[in-house]
Amino acid sequence: MSAPGIVLVFPAFASDYKEDLSQLIPGYTDLFRDLARKASEQVNAPLYLFDSSTHNFLDHELFNQYISYIQSCTCSTLIRNMGLNPGILAGYSMGIYAALFDSESITFETGLDLIRNAFREIGEVTKNRNFSMCSIIGLNIKDIHQLINQIDKDTEISNQNGVFAFVLSGHLSSLNSIVFKAKEEGAIHTHIFEVTQPYHSGFLKETETEFSNFVNHIQVLKPVSPIISVIDQTTLTSPEQLRRELVRGLYQPLNWYQTHLKLSNIGYKTFIECSPLNALRRIARFLPGEVTYFSPLSAIH
Amino acid sequence: MARITENTRNEVKDVVYHFFADECEVDKAQINDQTNIIKDLDGDSLMFLELIEIFKKKYNLDIELKTIGKYAVKHPVSTIGQLIDMQMIIIEHENRLLELEK
Hints:
The complex is a heterodimer.
Chain A lengths: L1 E9 L17 H16 L17 H21 L3 E7 L4 H7 L5 H19 L4 E7 L3 H11 L4 E7 L2 E7 H13 L4 E4 L15 H8 L11 E2 L6 E2 L2 H10 L5 E2 H10 L4 E4 L5 H6 L7 E3 L1 H5 L1
Parallel strand pairs in A: 1-2, 1-10, 4-9, 10-11
Antiparallel strand pairs in A: 3-5, 3-6, 4-5, 7-8
Helix pairs in contact in A: 1-2, 1-4, 2-3, 2-4, 3-4, 4-7, 5-6, 7-8
Chain B lengths: L5 H18 L21 H14 L6 H10 L5 H14 L9
Helix pairs in contact in B: 1-4
């Protein structure tokens, strides 16, 4: 089945949201188990012990990324096995690795190696410093810039999820102050993420050299489906573009909002989230455009 | 300031119940005024934001999100009934919402 109007989207982190379709998607449990065993051998971690009912491992920053990657690879494989060919792929943050797997640019094992190496390089650059990320919902970009200027000019907007929805990266102490002030200024919701790294911010610029060395030594093939850059919304179709995206994705800010707008404006109306969870479908509710998000369960049915 | 009629609360209640039944994929009959939005429905702040936009359009409200945010800090909402009460106050007072605090 050819479906050029379909976008497959890949989330960054696994979560313990109430909605978890992993028991309902036909074929999911067996394939996830197979991939988790394969992943456990590749990264030497007991990922096969992951239990979707107890959400173990999800508070482990690296393991969480592995689990999210395995979940996404499982869903995308099941969707591809139906013969569905998406028009384009979009990886939210670390979701880029699963998008690369889905596009057949990298192997399943290479995706795991990328996650492990990125995490290690980031850890080297930020060691002995307390970083994190936070979300602020309900303030506009001008308000956010004002908060940053008032409290810590080094704090960065690392992603925009909507007109009134932002993710910031920076020192944990600064983020705590910004969140406190944001509430005073009328933010509807704020949240400090349970992460220890300032993903997608200039704090990680120093990862560039070492991570480039790694990325330049792995095999990256031309993608069978194009991937949209969540950084600048260009369409990535060559291995060179993908390598560059992998490296800069660690230290440059994302803009999921603009990515969504771009896809909507060029005619993509159907999005399928490659995950048994619904993190991106939650964000999408407040994005403009006549688009519909589906779970893999809906897509398979 | 929007005119509140006897029907307004029923309208608001109907919109809120329909909205959460639809968004959270639960039967409307399972929702009541004591239903906890986060614990029972797995709702979130983006839903709250979306609902505000629905009411802004429905009643042509002149209110900034920030004003609602400042009010909500002092009057946190956890149940459907509390949310309906807050929407009624927003509809009635719009951007003068914070004057109620004085």
